[in-house]
Amino acid sequence: MPHPADDNDRDDGRKTFEGQATFEAAAGEAGWRLDRVLAAHSALSRTRLKALILAGEVTVAGRTIRDPGHRVNAGDALTVNVPEPEPAEPAGEDIPLKIVHEDSEMIVIDKPAGLVVHPAAGHARGTLVNALIAHCGASLSGIGGVKRPGIVHRLDKDTTGLLVVAKTDAAHQSLAAQFADHGREGPLQRGYLAFVWGAPDRPKGTVDAPIGRHPHSRDKQAIRRDGRSAVTHWQVLERFPGKSGKPVASLLACRLETGRTHQIRVHLAHIGHPLLGDPVYGQGYRTKEALLPPAAEAALKALGRQALHAYLLAVAHPATGESLQFRSELPDDLARLHRSLTGSALKK
Predict the structure, then answer these.
(1) Which pTM was predicted?
(2) What string of DSSP letters covers 294-345?
(3) b vs e for 297-310, b when ≥16 Cβ sit within 10 Å of the residue's Cβ?
(4) What's the confidence (pLDDT) of residue 3?
(5) pLDDT at 88
(6) Is 222's pLDDT higher than 90?
(7) Cα–Cα nearest to 266, from 309, 216, 208
(8) Peptide bond preceding 90: is omega within 30 degrees of 0, i.e. cis?
């Protein structure tokens, strides 16, 4: 029974492997649960290891053990058989991708407008997941035993910008933990550029308001007392005058401290500065389009989506721990809107 290959060692001492591998329980692990011991030696997730145990893919001292809570003795030989990952569902599709970074553990995509991240009702095909399955192919080692990309965060269909995806089970664990921690203990950062209606009366601020599902519309989120904690930091970069010469719109840099569905869109609408072009949370501001200079009004109508772009993403590499930072320029449609607004931009 072969041991995991040395070239698959991670910096934290755990192993990544496919096929069959054998470990020996250390003296300090005597009395530990079987799934805990395996997790200490393997980069597979504890959930994945439990599934393998229940499926009869783990032996202890030569006996098949199907109980994740089985207590291990010092010196026990633990053998794990990891079957080949099952074919991906859904199927891969040849969809062009703008790749910012890719290695054996992760891939960073600059997502275009109109691309849904994950298959769902009404979007069974043509998603980022379909595209990644086709692009990554055999380099997907399997998330939970299936050859699929590990989605750890999302962007709305019509929000553009940077998105990181795991290619291995271990990377998925690491990245998911970073996003769950919201960057409190690591380098995780998520920065957005937001074109909004009006001009805040302060140069920067924070919105700390819980978000939950809208009580009357399942497709919307809302500020709710019983919602989940949500914090957005914002800073004014530019203010744009309208036909009257008074500020009618602004460009904000937003930084997420949490990651709730529609968080920036809901928070900015909550403080009276919804996103330009937002058909859900900025619908009541449609009449303000007539206040924009003609070129900006035309650019906004041509945009056809919320003016939001994820321009900054920083993460710790899931295998090496190295801090990585990525930036994305405004896509063409938002760059066009920006140019049309900055003809006579006001100073902060």
Answers:
(1) 0.75
(2) HHHHHHHHHH-S--EEEEEEEEE-TTT--EEEEE-PPPHHHHHHHHHHGGGP
(3) bebbeebebbbbbb
(4) 32
(5) 55
(6) yes
(7) 208
(8) yes
Rounded to an integer, what distance in angstroms lies between the CA atom of residue 346 and that of residue 323? 36
Cα Dmax for the chain: 82
Helix/strand/coil for 204: strand
Instruction: Please give the torsion angle defined by the CA atoms of residues 182, 183, 185 and 186, in that order, rounded to the nearest 10 degrees.
Output: 140
- Selected residue with higher pLDDT from 215 and 264: 264
What percentage of the chain reaches a pLDDT higher than 90? Answer: 61
The residue written with tokens 């989605």 in the block is: 151
Q: Is there a contact between 274 and 285 (Cβ–Cβ < 8 Å)?
A: yes
Task: Say how far apart CA 144 and CA 257 lie, in whole Å.
Answer: 28
Give pLDDT tens digits for 170-198.
899 899 999 988 878 889 999 999 999 99
Q: Which of 35, 110, 156, 158 is catalytic?
A: 156
Q: Which of 304, 310, 342, 344 is nearest to 327 (CA)?
A: 310
| Residue 62, number of CB atoms within 10 A of its CB | 8
Active site residue 156: yes
- Residue at 113: amino acid letter: A
Give all domains of the chain, ordered by start, each with its CATH number. 6-82 (3.10.290.10), 99-181 (3.30.2350.10), 189-344 (3.30.2350.10)
Here the tokens at position 209 are: 């308001």
Instruction: Give the residue carrying structure tokens 């100073």.
Output: 347
**If we measure between CA atoms, which residue out of 34, 46, 38 comes closest to residue 71?**
34
Six-digit token pair at 104? 């054996």
Q: What's the one-letter identity of residue 256?
A: L
Q: pLDDT digits over 102-115, tens only?
A: 999 999 999 999 99
